[in-house]
Amino acid sequence: MAPSAPHQKLWVETDGQLVMSDYRVRLLELVGETGSLADAASALGLSYRRAWGKVKEIEANLGRSLVRSEVGGAGGGRTALTPEAEELVAAYRRFQERVEQDIEGAYDAELRDLLTPP
User: Fold this and answer.
1) Is pLDDT larger for residue 106 or for residue 5?
2) Whole-prediction pTM
């Protein structure tokens, strides 16, 4: 039997409004990695319209722009993260890592022995 391990899903709310989550950060990361909202949407199994709506929702909830689109050109258009979005993604990932470390410590202290088969 494999050892047990804790898992968590994170999100941040302001006044009951979801402003950031693991899923939303991944969408932004993929936009940054691919340079394309369509490719990011496809990687997550979303329609372009749903992905665009999520980005606009995040921007509205945070009150800042997170992506910028460049139209046309030789290779077609491109979507890039703003510097604020890059900072937000990096900070969220650091936050996520700290929570993961804290949850591991709490799990080790409180539950591991009780959930590990003898």
Assistant:
1) 106
2) 0.86
